[in-house]
Amino acid sequence: MARFLIRSLVSTIITMLLVSLALFFLLEAGSRDVTVRILGVFSTPEQRASLSLQLGLDQPAIVRYGNWLIGNDWRVQRKIGYPLEAIKNEKTEEREWWANVNGQLTRWKLEEGVLIALLRQSDGSAIEQQAETSWKTIDDQENGANKQVFWGVDTKNNAVKWVKGEGKEIYILTKAGMRKEGDGAQQYIPLTKGLLRGDAGLSLQTGRPVMVTLLPRIRNTVVLAGVAFLVVVPIALLLGILAGVNEGRFLDRFISITSLGLTATPEFVTGVFLILIFGIWLKWFPAVSVFLRPDAIFSDPKIMVLPVLTLTAVELGYIVRMTRTSMVTVMQSTYIRTAIIKGLPYRRVVFRHALRNALMAPITVIMLHVNWLIGGVVVVETIFGFPGLGKYIYESAIFGDFNAIEAAAMITVLIAVVTRLVGDFAYTLLNPRIRYS
Amino acid sequence: MESQQNIKKKNYSLRLERISQSLRLIFSSKIAIIGLSMFVFWVVLGIVSIFWTPYEPNATQFAQNLTPNATNWLGTDHLGRDILSRLMTGTQVILLKTRLPGIGVIPGGVALWGVFGSLLLGTVLGLNAGYRGGWTDQVIMQFLDALIAFPVIVLYLVVISALGRGDLVVILAITVTGAPGVARLARSLALDIRTRDYIRAAETRGESPWYIMFKEILPNVSSPLLVDGMLRVGYAIFAIGTLGFLGIGLPPPDPDWGNMVNEARRNIFSNQLAVIWPALSISTLVIGLNLFADGLNEEINRFQK
Amino acid sequence: MTNPTKTLRKNPPVLKLENVSVAYKVRGGEVEAVQDVSFEIGRGEAIGIVGESGCGKSTLAWAVVNFLGRNGYVKRGSIHFQGQNLVNQGRESLQRLRGDKIAMVYQDPMKALNPSMKIGEQMKEVLTVHQKMEEAEAIERCVKMLQRVYMPDPMNVLKRYSHQLSGGQQQRVVIAMSLLNNPALLIMDEPTTALDVTVEATVLDLIDELRRELDTAIMYISHNLGVVSRVCSRVAVMYAGKLVEWAEVENIFRSPKHPYTQGLIRAIPKLGEDKLGSQLYPIPGRVPAPNRRPDGCVFHPRCDYVQGICRDKKPALRDVGDGIMVRCHFAELIDPSEWEPPDAVEIKPEGLKSEIGNDAALLNAVNLKTYYQVQGSSLKDLLGLNPKRYVRAVEDASLEVVPGRTLGIVGESGCGKSTLIKTIIGLEQSTAGSIKFKGLDISSSLADRSEAVMKEIQMVFQNPDSTMNPAYTVGQQIARPMIKFGVVPKNEVRQAVINLLGNMRMGENYYDRLPNQLSGGEKQRVGIARALATYPDLVLCDEPVSALDVSVQAAILNLLLKVQRKYGTTMLFIAHDLSVVRYFCDEIIVMYLGQMMEKGQAEQIYAPPYHPYTEALLSAVPVIDPGSHQKRIRLEGNVPSAINPPSGCRFHTRCPRRKLLPNGGKICEEQLPPWQDMGDGHQIFCHLPEETLCAFEPVFTVKEG
Questions:
Q1: For residue A360, which residues of chain C lie inside 8 Å, CB to CB?
Q2: Summary count for chain C: helices (H), strands (E)
Q3: pTM reported for the whole predicted model
Q4: A60, A105, B228, C665: which one has the fewest Cβ atoms less than 10 Å from its Cβ?
C-alpha cells in the first residue's frame, strides 16, 4: 500500500510541476511582447525596451519561471548583502520589500547620482537620508576600468543594480503616460516570494496583488462546488445503484435516459432554463447571484440555489451512468453468483457483497471528475454573475491578465490533483487487494 | 491475371461483407438507430444550408423577437434575424467545414477535426504506453496525468488567451483535452491485447514495435476507439457551445449555437423561445451521438459474446 | 463397486431429474441447451457428468439450483430434490434451499470469492443466515470445517482476503464453505480444472472422503473422464444437450455402449502409451450449436455406424441391462472392439523415427538461467534500499534436442517450462548460460537475432482463441511470415498458403475466412500452419492441445506427428498432461520450481527409477484405466515462491522420500543434489542413492483379479 500511495504522491508532485511549466511557457509563448500590451502599439521601441528592463524580462525564461514559482528574494539577498523582508502595507494591503540593514528596514533611491536611503518607521512612513552604504568596486572586464556598483531595493519592490555615475535613462510608467527620467538602474529584478509561497505577483488588470483578490473568490467557489458535490454524490450513487440492480427494467431505463438527457445538456443551457423557470416565471430564487456583502454566501444562501442546481444537473447524469455500469458489471460477476447460490437474501447480496465492489470504480472516477466540476463552475459563475474563481479566470483570460490566469489556473489544477489523490486513498481503503500488497 | 482479378474481387466482396456486418450491427439496435437518425438529421440540415437557407442568416430583415409564424418558422431573434436559418448555418462550422486563415475552407467541422486529432494523438500515445510498458509507459502516463489535471474549460481559456481565437485554436484545444482520455482507453485495450498469443507470434518473427502496434493491435481496438470518438464528438460540440456561450468560441461571421444562447439570454425577458431553439439543437445533437455510441457498444458487447 | 449402488437404490433419491429440458430465450426465438435429461442421485453417491464443451453440462447444474439468468428457464420436465419439485419454485423457498441443503462449487475459485470481504465473513454468513447461528458458534464451525479440508492455520485464514491465498487454498475454502450446512446435495462444476495435477489429486481425495463421511450426494461435472472415474460411481455422458449414456464407471470404460462414448475413449491417450505403439482416433466433425442440431439422432453426422433410421428418428434413452441406459438405435449391435477407423479420420503417419539419432544436437542449452527482477512494495524497496530481488524462473537448465525428435517438458504451473521456451525463442532475455542453435549462439534477445535464425525457430501457442489475430483472414496470417522472410516469391504466396492449408486438412475456402468463423481446432491448425509457413527447423509447442476438447486434441496431435514426419521438424513440446507428453515425445524433462529434476527417454521417465517428484506427479494423474492400480503419493504444502526458493534441492520442502536419507535428509537442505546417471541418458537430480531410486515400486501396477 505504501508503495501505491507514495507513487500517487510523487506522481502528483511531478504533475503539478509539469502543469506549472506548461502553463508558464504556454502563456510566455502566447503573450509575445507584454510591453506592447501594457504600453499600447503606439509606444516607441525605447520605451518598450525600458519597460522590459524594469519588468526583469531581460532575464532568461527559465530564471523567470523559477522566480514565478519559488520566488527570488532568497537568491537576490546575497547580492544585496542584507536579508530581505516583505511587509504588508497596512494602507494598501500590498506587499512591500525592504532590506533589513542591521535591524533598520531600508530602501534606496538614486537622485541626481546620489544614493538616498529610505528608513522605514514603525508607522509605515519612511525617512530619507543620504545613504551611508558605500559603493562596491568591481572589475569591469569589458572596459578594463573599475566601476562603483551598488545593489539595493528600490521603492517599486525591485532589487536593482546602480552604477555610480552611470544613471541610466529610463521611462517610467505613470498614470499620465510615460515619463522619461535619469538615475535609472542597470538591472532590475522584480522581487517576489513565488507562487508556492503565496505570492502570485501583480494583476495586470488592476495593478493589485493577485492573491488579495483571488482568496475570497476561491472561498466562494469552494463553497459553491463543495455544496454541489455534497448534493450530487449521494443522490447519484443511489440512483446509479438502483438502476444497476434493476438492469433492463423500467426503472433502469427511466433513470438511464434521464441521466443521459442531463449529461447531454450543457451547463449554460440548464442554467438559462433554471433562470427562466425559477427566477423569472416562478420567482422563487434570485436569477443572479448578487453579492451585497462579501460573505453573502453565508448570510443569504438563497443566491446559491440555482448555481448549485445547475452544477448538480450535469454532474448527476455522469456519475449515475458511471455507477450504473459498475453495478451492472459487479452484479454479473462470479462472486455475486456465489453469494446468490449461498442462499443469501437479495438485500444482503446487494448491500454486503455488491455495493462495496461496485463503488470502487465510481469513487475514483468522481474524484477524477472534480476538474469537470470546476470547468462547469466557470460557466455557472459567468451565467449567474457569481464572484468566484471560475469567473475570475474567465475575466482574466478575456483581459489577458497572465499573472492572474497563472495563479488561478494553478489553483484549479491543485484542487483537481488533490481530489484525485484523495480518490486514490479512498480506493486503497476500499480495495483490500491494494491495501494488503 | 485472371486469378489476380479473382483475388481482387474476393477482397472486394470480403470488404463488402464486413461493411454489411457492421451495418447489421447498427441496425440491430433500436437505440443506435434513433441516435444515428438524430445525428444524420443535423448533418442533412447542415448540408442543405450550404446551398439554401430560408433567409440570409446574418441579415436583420425582420421585426425583432417574433414568435414562430408562417414566414419565420422558428421566429426571429433580438436583431430580427431568422432563427431557423441561423441554426442551420450553425451546423456547418461544427460538423461540415473548418475555416483556416490563409488557406481557406476545408471540409469537416471543427468538432470532427478536433476529435480526429485527439484520436490520432491519443492512440499513438496510448498504444506506445500500453504495448511497450516500462519507462515509456511511465513517462507517457505522467505527461497525460498532467494534461488531465487541467479542468477542460480552464485549459481552453488558457489556450485561447495565449493563442487567440480561431477555428484552428478550438481544434487544437479539443485535441489536447481529448487526447488523454483516448490514450487511457487505447492503453488499457493494448495492455489486454498485448498478452494475446498472436502478438507473441508477431514478436517471434521479428516484427517491429510499430508494426505490432499499428498492424496487429490497432485493428482490434479500433471499434471501441471509434465508439469513444463518437461520444467525444458529442463532448466537443458541448465544449464548442460552451465557448461560444462565453463569447470566446468560433469566430464570426458564421452563427454559433452557444453564442446564440448567450445573446438570447440577454433578451430573455422579451423572447424566451430564442434561447430554447439553439439549446435544443445542441442537446439533440449530443444526445443523438450518445445514444448511437451506447447502442453500438451494447451491440458490440453482445456480438463479442 | 456395484453392490453399494444397488443397496442405495432402495433409498429415495436425493435428486431426481425427469425429462428436463432447459431453454434460453435469445433474439429471434429460443434455443434448448439441454433436452430431455433424466437421472437420479442417491444419498452418499457421486455421479459424474462428462462431455465436451457446449454439450450442456453446466446448464444442467444451473438448472438444478434454478439460476439460469433472466433469459433461461426449465421448459419441460421436473427436478425433484428430496421429493420436492424445484421447477418454478419461488425466490424465497429457493433461497432457503440454496447454500443450505443444496450447495455448489464451480470452476474458478479466485472469481468465486468476493475480493473485498474477508474469508471469515463470507463463510460464517452461510451459517448465520440459514441457521440463525450465533457469531461465535459460527466462527467455531468455520474453523472446524477448514480443518476438515486440511487447511493449515484456519483462524488466520478467516481473517484474510481471497487474494492472499493460493489457488488450491481458495478452492478448499470454497469447498469448506459449501459444506458448512451439511448439504444433502453438492453440485461441483469442474472444481479442479484450474488446479495443478498434484493439487487436484489432493482435492479429489478430499471430495471422496467428505462424501463418505457426510453422506452427501454429489453431482460432479467435468470434461475429464479420469477425474470423474476417481470420484464417481456412475457417469452420465452428455452430447449436444442430450444424455447419451448413463452407466457405472467401470462399464463406461470397459464396454462403452454409445458410439460417442467409444469415440471419446479412443481419442484419449492412455498413460504409458506412446506414438509408436498406439494410435489416437479423433471424432470427426464438431459438436453442433444448440440451434443447429440435426434431425434424428444428434450424433448421427459424426457417427461411424450411421444408418438411415438415425437420420430420421430420434432414439430414446433405453435400458440395455446392467443398469446401463443408452440413447442409440443400435446399442446392442455395436461392438467397439471390431471398430475400424473410417477413411476420413486423420491417422498417425507410418514410419516415425524410433531409434536415437546420432546427429549433432540442433539446439543446445547449457546452464541457462532466466531471472526477472521484482518490484518490492515496501517503502525501502521504493527507495532502493533493499537488495534487488529476482524471480528465479529458470535455474541452470541444460538440454539438447536432436534433429527430427521431440523433447517434452513437463511440470506444474510455475515450474518454469514456459519461461524456458520463451527464453529459447528470445521472448525473454536469459540471465546467464548459453543457448546454441545449429552451433550458433542465440542467447541474445530477439532484437539481436538474425532473420535467418528467427525463421528457423517458430512457435505454436496454447490458446486457440488468442493464437490468431481476429482482424485478419486465415490466408493473410499464414502469408505474413512467408512474405516477411521471403520464403516464397510474392506471386506464389497464395498458392503456398493453400498448399499448407491442404496439409492441415483445410480446403482453399478457408483462405478468406476470419478467425471468428473457425472452431477451436481449426484455429489451432491455422496456428500450426503459420508456424510452419517459414519451414522452420525447430517448432516450440506451448501446450498446443490443453485448451481443446479431447476429440479435437487427438486430431491436432496426429497432425503434429504428420507434420514432423513430412518436414522432419524438430519439436519442443510443453504440456502439463503427462499422458499427452508420454504419447507424443521421445525425450522428456521434468521441471519443478525452475529446476530440472529428471531427464531421459520417455519410457524411462514413466518407469522406476523415478525422481521423487516425478513419482508424485505420476501418482496424481487421473487415469481412466480401470484395470490398473495407481500408487497414492500426495504432496503437502504449497509450491514455494520462486523469489526465495528453498536452499539445496528446491523440492526438499515437499519431498515425500526425503526421510529415506540419513539425518532426515539434512543434506537436501544444504547441498544441490548431483545429476545421477541411470544409464542410457536417463538422469536424476537427487541425493538419494541409485539403489534406493531403483527400488521404488512402479506407480502403476496391473490390478489383480
A1: 116
A2: 26, 26
A3: 0.84
A4: A60
